[in-house]
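The authors assume throughout that readers already know how a fold can be written as discrete tokens. What matters is that the chain and its backbone geometry are given together, residue for residue. A single example would do more here than another paragraph of explanation. For illustration, here is how one protein appears when written out as sequence plus structure tokens.
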Amino acid sequence: MIAVIGDIHGCFYTLEKLYKKIVKKYKNISVYTVGDLVDRGNFSFEVVNFIIENNIKFTPGNHDYMFYHFFRDPESVFAKSWMFNGNEATLLSYESNGDAIFRHIDHIKSQPLYYDLDECFISHAGISYHYAKILNENIENNVNILSDYIYADHATDKGVLWTRDPLLDIGKIQVVGHTKHQKITYDEDSHSVYIDTGACVGNRLSAVIVDANNIVDTIDEKTHLDDIF
């Protein structure tokens, strides 16, 4: 059994409250998040610090990769895109914590683009249905054959950081963020659950509890206004 938290986007106080709810109800549970730790909310530094200190596993989101590339590869498309995707709040949150930037971005880059677990498959945006058209093999219950594509295509609009395509049924539940929904939303056709519930726009931060390929519980926390105003 694991917990998976949706897109946090700098909403530290909301994250802190949600995390406490999760570990109070499910002691010693492993906690994951689908990424987009930074940008838009006011406390990106505090969020990344909290993630590291509490050993929360995550798959980086497109915003996390833009943050990384801005400092490590400033001529890249990722870096240039960050200018138009809410980087101001992140830069402001690191203004007094500049010594942590490189430690944080290197931690982000060290994380895997997906987790293929017994409980579920976790990535930021999901496995696009696009891959059904280019693979001859049946990938159900054999997601490993997609690994090379996932890493080769991560910067494209079909990749696990960016896609908004319908997702592919891979034979186990996909837990993803990236595409906002008002509430946790299950897509039966792709066997996917979308857990970005718009914390950074004043809605809520949500988590699912997953056991043996089933969502057994959901926990959420209304966005704390200090995080976004």
About this structure: The chain has seven helices and ten strands. The chain has one domain: 2-124+173-227.
